Amino acid sequence: MKKRFRVGSSPWRCWVLDDGKQLLGHVCVQLFEKMPNPVKDEPELHAYVTNLYVIPEIRSQGFGKRLLDKALAWCRAQGTDSIILWASPGSRSLYRRCGLVEPADIFELRLAARLPRPPR
Predict the structure, then answer these.
(1) Three-state SS at 24
(2) Which of 33, 34, 49, 80 could form a disulfide with 85 if both were Cys (CB 3.0 to 4.6 A apart)?
(3) What are the pLDDT digits (tens) for 90-108?
(4) What pLDDT shows up at residue 1?
């Protein structure tokens, strides 16, 4: 796991919030490239935000927004073309307040939800 988060050689970055004694929250981002194609000016560098978490005792005090703002600012500084994430129902309003929107142009196939194959 440590190899994945090594600064300089890793597409992952993480930000943590602590009080000097315990971890209070965190967020992680992974940069990834879209396969190049012949379409001119097609966005190619993207970021995936994951594991935004703040302990329940300090929620609704702006800590989650501060963590997310740090991660989004870093993504902008890297020149990302878009930022994606999967929101839990309770986090959707935070993401909307930070400027993220739910796209209408993405298709998804949830493989875990597929029905079992019939026996041969």
Answers:
(1) strand
(2) 49
(3) 899 999 999 999 888 888 8
(4) 46
Query: Mean of the per-residue pLDDT values for the chain?
Result: 86
Give the C-alpha separation, 50 to 53, whole Å: 9
Q: Token digits for 25?
A: 């929250």
55 vs 11: CA distance, rounded Å: 26
Residues 30/65, Cβ–Cβ less than 8 Å: no
What does each C-alpha distance from 12 to 16, 37, 86 come to in angstroms?
Answer: 13, 24, 17
Smallest CA-to-CA distance from 74 within 25, 7, 2 is with 7
**What CA–CA distance (Å, rounded) separates 45 from 36?**
10
Q: For residue 56, how far is the Cα from the chain centroid?
A: 20
Helix%, strand%, coil% for the chain, nearest 5: 30, 25, 45
